[in-house]
Amino acid sequence: MAFSFFSTGTTSEVNFIPEVFSKLLQAKFYGSSVLPSISNNDYEGEITGQGDKVVIRTVPAVTINDYAGSITTQELTTAKVELLIDKAKYYSFKVDDVLAAQADINMLEAASSDAAEGMRVAVETQVLSGVVTGATTIGAQTTITAGNILTSILDQAKALDELNIPEEGRFIVLSPEFVSLLKQSELRQAYLTGDDTSPLRNGKVGVVDRFTVYQSNMLYTPGSGADSGYTHVLAGHPKAISFASQFTNTETVRMESTFGDQVRGLKVFGSKVVTPDALVVGKWT
Length: 285
Fold this sequence. Notes:
The protein is an alpha+beta fold. Helix content is 26%, strand content 28%. The chain has helices at 18-31, 35-38, 97-102, 107-130, 149-162, 176-184, 199-202; strands at 53-57, 80-84, 87-96, 137-142, 171-174, 204-208, 211-215, 231-236, 241-254, 260-273, 279-284.
């Protein structure tokens, strides 16, 4: 569908449709993000705005007892985890009437693509850095080479195996540097299997052991402190991280001090490690 900010007549009629624009941004955001592949968004539909709180009930643990002629009946109890939608980011840009009239591109389409990409980078960077402290298993600082990267990946798989994490759906997120080392390792490219979707869209590189390998430039790499320079590689199962986001406000307003329109939008989001055993963090350099 084509969009235009302005009519071709003598007046500057705005054809901007906030709801359509919001959906377009959301689609573009998810089209190029690795978050939907490495997390669950089961509670996203319950978001109405920043400050929302989603209560997640955990599955009760049933006790297994030895039978000796009589039984006792357990009363089921369930814990709860709260997912707070406590973060928000926004964009706001102006399209001048003269610029829009002279432009040879679709201004709304171009702006929405840039807004979605910028929002994706900002949100994903914050989420990937925020979840690193929630994992049960956090590895020691390791210098990665083509000679030991495969062993390091298998160590992460072993940690998940020991915690009885399901094999189906496992992921590992590597930076481009480590993906390059993996392709130079003894595994070689022959053991990497791809899919029909370009890595430029969802970051998927291939499969190693039982991990689907994703590539991302947004992994947390502290610039100071004890872990300075060590990239925090994430491996695990999507049930580990709950992530929810929504473009809650998208609107256009006619500017008072100039001839043009202001387009602005607000995205709220939250994330939480709800199953710590299902996430492993490696500190690699």
